[in-house]
Amino acid sequence: MASHIVGYPRMGPKRELKFALESFWDGKSSAEDLKKVAADLRASIWKQMADAGIKYIPSNTFAFYDQVLDATALLGAVPPRYGWTGGEIGFDTYFSMARGNASVPAMEMTKWFDTNYHYIVPELGPDVHFSYSSHKAVDEYKEAKALGVDTVPVLIGPVSYLLLSKPAKGVEKSFSLLSLLPKILAIYKEVIADLKAAGASWIQFDEPTLVLDLESHKLEAFTKAYSELESSLAGLNVLIETYFADIPADTYKTLTSLKSVTAYGFDLVRGTQTLNLIKAGFPSGKYLFAGVVDGRNIWANDLAASLCLLQDLEGIVGKDKLVVSTSCSLLHTAVDLANETKLDDEIRSWLAFAAQKVVEVNALAKALSGAKQEEFFSANAAAHASRKSSPRVVNEAVQKAVVALKGSDHRRATNVSARLDAQQKKLNLPILPTTTIGSFPQTADLRRVRREFKAKKISEEEYVNFIREEIRKVVELQEELDIDVLVHGEPERNDMVEYFGEQMSGIAFTANGWVQSYGSRCVKPPIIYGDVSRPKAMTVFWSAMAQSMTKRPMKGMLTGPVTILNWSFVRVDQPRSETTFQIALAIKDEVEDLEKAGISVIQIDEAALREGLPLRKSEQAHYLDWAVHAFRITNVGVKDTTQIHTHMCYSNFNDIIHSIIDMDADVITIENSRSDEKLLSVFREGVKYGAGIGPGVYDIHSPRIPPTEEIADRINKMLAVLEKNVLWVNPDCGLKTRKYTEVKPALTNMVAAAKQIRIEL
Ligand code: GLN
Ligand code: ZN
C-alpha cells in the first residue's frame, strides 16, 4: 500500500528560508549562501519523507518565492518591462518579477484559491514568446536522485496556469488566455522529455482549477491539453492533482476519461460529493490518490475514521491502485510540532503539523497493508477522545448561548437612516466627515516595549505609561490635523486577530506555527480549539483612556468574528458557523461594554469576510448568510445613537454587495485605491442602503504622499456617484506600516481636500 504527499512547506521549521531570502535581498549574503540554505532544506525534507516511508515524494514543490512564478519562469513568460533577454532565468529577473526593482514595479499578487497564500499572477498576451527558460524542475529531480530519493516532479498543470493568468496591460480584455494553450504545451513537452531522460517514472500536474465551476470551453481545454500531451507522456505515470473542494460532477466525468492520465488526486477532506462520485464509478486500472490527511489544518487526523474510508475505497479501486495522500499541499499548514515548546501536552496531543502529517499518511498506508501500528493508532484514538470531553474544549454556557441565538436574525430595530439621524444629533459631525481606519505607525520603540512587557522585562505600570503617552501623541496629532472622528492608534496591538485571540478562552497560540503567506512573509494563525468566550473586557481600558483625552468622538476598535475565524486554524468538530457565533457573542459583550464606557462610535473590522467565501458557487449563499448574521449579532444590542462602523480591505464587492448591505452597519469604510467608479456604482445601486460609506481616498500601501488636489479630485468623483450626506473621507486602510513622515503630510492633505470641497458644496 503506497503513500504520497502533495507538497511540503518551504520555509523550514524555523523559517530558515525567510531569513536567507531577506538577508540576500538586503545584500548581506550571496546568491550561493541562499542556494545553500535552500538545498539543505530540500534535502532534509526529502530525507524526512523517505525515512517516514513515503513512496511518492514530491520534488519541485520548493520555490524561492512562489510556484506559479516558477511556472512563469519555466515558460519564459517574463513581461517585457523586466528587460530579460533570454537564457536561463536567474535571481535578478525572478525576484524583480516577484518584488519589483528600483525602476519597475512587481507583478500582481493575488490569493491562491481560498487560502491565505498569494501567488504571482502571470501576465499574458498574444505576443508572448514562450521558451523553456528554467530547468528547476529537472534540476530538483536530479538533486533528489543524487541523494538517493526518486521523486515525483510536480508542475502546475498547463490549463490551471492559463486560467490563473490575466491578460497583460494593453491586451484586449476579450483576448482568450486559453488560446495560448498550444504554445505553452510545446514547452511542457520539452520539460516532460527532460524529466523522462533524467529517469522520472511519475509526473504530477497540479490542476486545482478543476474544483471550480468551469464553463464548458474551459473544461474542454483539459481534454485538449492532455490529449495533446499524450505521446509525450507515454511511458510515464501521470497524476492529476486537485484540491480545496469537491469536484463538480461533469468535471469528474471529463477528468476520469482522460486517456493520458493514470492517477487522480482528490481532496476528500473538503466536501463529500467527490467521494460519492468515486463510489458511483472510478476508471478501472487507474490510481486513486486519496487525500484524507488535511493539508489546510493543524489537527491530528482521525486515523480510525480515515482507515474505514480507505478500506471502502480499496473495495472500489483495488488494493494496488489506492494511494494514501494529503488533501492538498502541506504548504498551508504549520511545519513541525516538535518546535512547539509553549503548548502544553494536552493541546499538543490533538495536533499534527506537516512533519506529523507525513507520519500519519504513512501509518495509514501501513495499516491498510495489514501492518497497523497499534500503539500509534490507540494514542491517536485517546487524543481524539480527550479532545471531545476536555473541560478546556467544552463550555456549556457558551454552547447554550449559541443555541439560544437560533430563531432570530438579530437586526437593530430602527432602520439605518433613522439611526444615522439620531447619531448625527449626538455627534454633530460636519458633512464629509474625516476619519482613519485604526492603526497609526508602529515604531521600532513601540514594538520593543510590547516585546519587553510580554517577556516581563518591564512592569505593567511602565508599559501602561508608555502606551498612554503613545495614545496621547496620536490623539494630539489628530486634533492638530482637525480630523473629526478619532482613533487611538492601536499601539497595544501586535496583530488585529492575535490581540483578541490572546484574551479569549478556547484559543491557543504557537511559537513557530508559521504558514507562508507570500514570498518570505509568514503568518502564525491562532488555533481555535474549544468553545470561545471572553473572560473580561479586552479593549475598554485603552478606548476609555483615549476618549478621556479628547472631546471629539473616539472610535472603539474591534476585530469582527468572521475575520477572527478566517485568519485562524479552526476546529473541525463543529460547523464553522457555530464557532463564529461563539466569537460573535464575545465581541457583542465587548461592544456593549464599550458603549457603557461612553464610546459612541465603534468600528468592527471584517477585513477577511470575503476570504472565507467558498470556491463553489453552490455553497456561497449559505456562508454569506451566517457570516453576515454573525456580524449583526455583535452590535444588535446597541442604542440607535451608537454608530457602528465596519471596514473591509478589498474592493471586490460586485457579487457580494447585497450581503454587505445586509450587515446593516451605519458606516462602511473600504479600500478603493484604484479609484474604481464601478465600485461606487455598485454601492449606489444599493441607494436604499442609506448608510455612510467611506471609499479610501488614498493608497496606504505606498510611501507616496497624495497631493491635496488629487484627493479632492477623487472625492469629487465619488460625489458624482454617491450622495453627499453619506460620504466619509478616510484612507484605504490602517496606517501601521507607514512612517509618521508619510502619515502627517498625507492626512494633512486629506483633511484639506475635505474642507475645500465642503466649502464648494
Ligand atoms: N483597524 C485595523 C488597522 O487599522 C484594520 C486593519 C485591516 O483592515 N487590515 O490596522
Ligand atoms: Zn483594511
Write the layout of secondary structure elements.
Blueprint: E1 2-3, H1 16-25, H2 31-52, E2 57-59, H3 67-75, H4 91-99, E3 109-111, E4 118-120, E5 123-124, H5 136-146, E6 151-156, H6 158-163, E7 166-167, H7 181-197, E8 202-206, H8 216-228, H9 230-233, E9 237-241, H10 249-256, E10 263-267, H11 273-280, E11 287-293, H12 303-317, E12 322-326, H13 345-349, H14 354-368, H15 374-389, H16 396-405, H17 416-427, H18 444-454, H19 460-481, H20 498-501, E13 505-508, E14 515-518, E15 521-523, E16 527-533, H21 540-547, E17 555-559, H22 561-566, E18 569-570, H23 576-596, E19 601-605, H24 617-635, E20 643-648, H25 657-662, E21 667-670, H26 677-685, E22 692-695, H27 708-721, H28 740-760
Parallel strand pairs: 1-12, 2-6, 5-7, 6-8, 8-9, 9-10, 10-11, 11-12, 16-18, 17-19, 19-20, 20-21, 21-22
Antiparallel strand pairs: 3-4, 13-16, 14-15
Helix pairs in contact: 1-2, 12-14, 16-23, 18-19, 23-24, 27-28
Bound molecules: glutamine and zinc ion.
Zinc ion (ZN) is lined by residues 437, 607, 647, 649, 733-734.
Question: How would you describe this structure in keywords?
Answer:
single chain; 761 residues; alpha/beta; 8-stranded parallel β-sheet; 5-stranded parallel β-sheet; 28 helices; 22 strands; binds glutamine; binds zinc ion
